[in-house]
Design goal:
With 204 residues, the chain is α+β, with helices and mostly antiparallel strands. Helices cover 51% and strands 7% of the residues. The protein has 2 domains: 77 residues, Glutaredoxin, CATH 3.40.30; 115 residues, Glutathione S-transferase Yfyf (Class Pi), Chain A, domain 2. Helix 1 links the parallel strand 1 and strand 2.
């Protein structure tokens, strides 16, 4: 299989960490897509993903799957050992709940803060700085929310490491480009971050 990605982007890193936890990195060829040069905007790339985003997984038969969690779901179903999306009805539901919270209230505003304050994509969008700053405030609030939650939990969904931890960890790391970091008083979030950082998958 092939994974079309941009190594510095957060969504591809989420997929790489998921694959690393499952021991699947060697099963894929990773092909770099230069977003700044617009390589994701070409007709050839759009044929793989009409949304023109990274990552995209292309299976050996030519089938393409885009969207980070859809790719992770494929790996979860195809390689069920060491589940990362929960075990059993309640566990799966709670893991999905946290993944969606992180996606909508943490990852998306992180991306909007970057896009609307950095000018990185100003050649193909209309940055609105005020919106970017509003998103910054939303991200900072979620840092506090996570810190409070992790006071009583080893990982986001309890005692087991899941994709929710991957998504939160990579979002925190990407927020360095927004100059948003874990604050000294957020000791529970910092301890969790160090636990995740120590995992081999965090190095991909």
């Amino acid at each position: 299989m092939k994974i079309y990605e941009t190594k510095t982007a957060p969504n591809p890193r989420r997929v790489r960490m998921f694959m690393a936890e499952k021991g699947l990195l060697e099963k894929a060829e990773f092909i770099q897509v230069d977003l700044l040069k617009g390589e994701n905007l070409t007709p050839e790339y759009a044929a793989r993903n009409p949304m023109k985003k990274v990552p995209v997984m292309e299976l050996d038969d030519g089938t393409c799957i885009s969207e980070t969690m859809a790719i992770c779901r494929y790996f979860e179903e195809a390689y069920p050992e060491r589940p990362l999306l929960g075990s059993g009805a309640l566990d799966k539901a709670q893991t999905e709940q946290w993944i969606r919270w992180i996606e909508f209230y943490f990852f998306m505003p992180t991306g909007m803060c970057f896009q609307h304050t950095s000018g990185y994509f100003k050649d193909r969008m209309n940055p609105i700085k005020e919106w970017g700053e509003e998103c910054r405030a939303t991200v900072e609030k979620f840092f506090h929310f996570l810190n409070a939650h992790l006071e009583r939990n080893t990982f986001i969904c309890g005692d087991e490491f899941t994709a929710a931890d991957i998504n939160a960890f990579t979002t925190i790391d990407f927020n360095k480009v927004n100059n948003i970091r874990i604050q000294p008083e957020q000791t529970h979030l910092k301890a969790w971050y160090e636990r995740v950082k120590a995992r081999p998958s965090a190095q991909v």
